[in-house]
Amino acid sequence: MYTVLAGGVGAARFLRGLTAAVPADEVVAIVNVGDDLTRLGLRICPDLDSITYWLGGVVHPAQQWGRADERFTVAEELARFGHEPWFTLGDRDLAVHLHRTMRLREGAPLSVVSGEVARAFGVDVRLLPATDDEVATRITTADGRDLHFQEYWVRERAAPEVAHVRLAGAEDARPAPGVVEALVDADAILIAPSNPVVSIDTILAVPGIAEAVRTSPAPVVGVSPIIGGEVVRGMAHRLLPVVGAEVSAAGVAHHYGALLDGWVIDQQDAELRDVVAAAGPRCVATDTMMDDPAVAAALARTCLRLAEEVRR
Ligand code: GDP
Ligand code: CA
After folding, report:
1. Neighbours of 241 (CB within 10 A)
2. Which of 15, 231, 256 is the pocket-test mutation for ligand 1 (most atoms within 8 Å of CB)?
3. CATH of the domain at 200
4. pTM of the full predicted structure?
5. Residue span of the structural domain in which 91 resides
6. How high is the pLDDT of residue 279?
7. Which terminus in the chain has less CB density within 10 A, N or C?
8. What's the chain's average pLDDT?
9. Most ligand 1 atoms within 8 A of CB, residue of 15, 233, 290, 299 to mutate
10. Which pLDDT value is given to residue 84?
11. Quick one: pLDDT band at residue 130, thresholds 50, 70, 90?
């Protein structure tokens, strides 16, 4: 079993590669739920849905999230009632949120519902939310406001200076059923090239998950989300300094610290190999830009080879 700590799009692109390298039913993704929000009474899980749409082959190809061939009839009608349209809700996407919300109201845990949704899209990877409990990534801005992650990222386009990031509700949250087992029993634990602060750290913030990663006998190998000192997409370059990390492939490795046995960086950053290795993890440089599925598959194989090499 290969267990992947996963945010949204970066993780989805990586999982597409991994499932070309190993059977999908041997892959478990432990997915960030700090981005989840409630709009119009509907529970929305952006990272779970991005992964489902990618692996189900229905993602919007240019946008890289949401559905291909989407329409916005409902959103247009909602404008009539003065609903603020800052969070995009397409008609096809809404069907998922409607179904999920109905199932949650019936009492089904998110981990069960996420499995049902994934299967409906023909996804064989096991998708587990980090927790079934309701948590939220909250951003404290330098000017003292407390925003939900999506208010910061989508509504305010990551413009505000950030002072602090936290996963609200983490203290009382428990790992979803199967999460700890998927880490402890894994043949390899892979950290996808996801946002370290608002995707990976928010998974690790659920009590018990970081400990399971640390105590698992499985080797832990991560992929840098930073290439040549820049993000491929998203706002990690704005958030890494907030947690005292340098915006570089070495800075992210240093941030994960003793968690890592192996670290895969882009070939553009090959000169950082010794800096990373000096701090602990074995480091390999390769092509990590996953626009091409064949590159994503090769990257996954490199990760699995490195995991074999560092197996403790
Ligand atoms: P989000 O939840 O949709 O923001 O996606 P993630 O949490 O997975 O984080 C996006 C991160 O993935 C960003 O920091 C990107 O730089 C990184 N990323 C996206 N695509 C790639 C890729 O092809 N290669 C690498 N190395 N990183 C990527
Ligand atoms: Ca996300």
Report:
1. 13
2. 231
3. 3.40.50.10680
4. 0.97
5. 2-134+171-311
6. 84
7. C
8. 97
9. 233
10. 83
11. very high
